[in-house]
């Protein structure tokens, strides 16, 4: 479960609020939810806002004619979007693997197997092929030729990577290692040099053939 869902559902009261909305035949406002659960309306509104921020419920504006501001109604969200489902699955798998002593090694091997699903880069000039893979995966790579680095500006797995870097970042490291296998450049992945930035450093004249 992704961080935003876990945070939203980490409260028994919010789980009750969600059950009330699911059972309701029509959208409810905070007052109705509060009455149903015996909560203060401010507390009910807080829980509803948390669920809405996580995408678990949606706000609707009441259409009835009334003085003052229109009522804000809440209804459970539709089916989980594909990208949210993938994010949840990635985090569940990362969490399951993170508890193992050999998590890093297993994750790295998984990354190497993943690399085999892509076209191998040109061994004479592998960096463009590596960039193409990052682009296909949505990392928004930017090459800094002066410093021989690749800036990964939009990791599509950042939520899981922040919670389980020993797994997710190791998968990415294995991916890079396999893509550059038997080529001259060595690479080192440096995760989260900034909040939204990871960097791959390239050594085109390595002293040894091993990738760190």
Strand share of the residues?
15-25%
| Biggest sheet record | 4 strands, antiparallel
- Tell me the span between the first and last alpha carbons: 31 Å
Strand runs, count:
7
> What structural class results from the helix and strand content?
alpha+beta
Put simply, the count of helices is 9
- Helix and strand sequence: HHEHHEEHHHEEHHEE
Helix content: 40-55%
Largest sheet strand order: 4-5-7-6
**Rg over C-alpha atoms, rounded to the nearest angstrom:** 23 Å
On the 0 to 100 scale, the average pLDDT is 85
Poorly predicted segments:
none
Q: What does the overall shape look like?
A: elongated
**Count of structural domains:** 2
Describe the structure using short key phrases.
alpha+beta; Arc Repressor Mutant, subunit A; three-stranded antiparallel β-sheet; 9 helices; 17% strand; elongated; WH-like_DNA-bd_sf; ArsR-like_HTH; Transcriptional regulator, ArsR family; WH_DNA-bd_sf
Description of the molecule:
The longest helix has 17 residues, at about 80-100. Helix 6 (about 105-115) runs parallel beside helix 9 (about 165-180). Helix content is about 50%, strand content about 15%. With about 210 residues, the chain is an alpha+beta fold. The mean pLDDT is about 85. The relative contact order is 0.11. It starts with a helix and ends in a 9-residue tail after the last strand. Strands 4-5-7-6 form a 4-stranded antiparallel beta sheet. The radius of gyration is 23 Å and the shape is elongated. It has 2 domains: about 5-75, Winged helix-like DNA-binding domain superfamily/Winged helix DNA-binding domain (Arc Repressor Mutant, subunit A), CATH 1.10.10.10; about 100-205, no CATH class. It has 9 helices and 7 strands. A hairpin with a 4-residue loop joins strand 4 (about 140-145) and strand 5.
């Amino acid at each position: 479960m992704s961080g935003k869902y876990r945070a939203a559902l980490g409260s028994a009261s919010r789980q009750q609020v969600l059950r009330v909305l699911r059972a309701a035949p029509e959208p409810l406002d905070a007052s109705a939810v509060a009455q149903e659960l015996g909560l203060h309306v401010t507390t009910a509104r807080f829980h509803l806002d948390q669920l809405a921020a996580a995408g678990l419920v949606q706000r609707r504006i009441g259409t009835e004619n009334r003085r003052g501001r229109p009522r804000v109604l809440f209804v459970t969200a539709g089916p989980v979007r594909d990208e949210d489902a993938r994010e949840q699955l990635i985090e569940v798998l990362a969490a399951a693997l993170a508890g193992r002593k050999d998590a890093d090694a297993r994750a790295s091997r998984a990354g190497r197997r993943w690399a085999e699903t892509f076209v191998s880069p040109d061994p004479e000039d592998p960096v463009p092929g590596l960039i193409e893979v990052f682009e296909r995966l949505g990392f928004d790579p930017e090459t800094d030729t002066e410093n021989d680095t690749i800036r990964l500006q939009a990791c599509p797995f950042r939520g899981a990577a922040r919670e389980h870097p020993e797994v997710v970042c190791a998968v990415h490291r294995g991916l890079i290692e396999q893509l550059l296998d038997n080529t001259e450049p060595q690479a080192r992945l440096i995760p989260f040099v900034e909040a939204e930035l990871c960097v791959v450093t390239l050594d085109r004249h390595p002293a040894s053939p091993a990738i760190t």
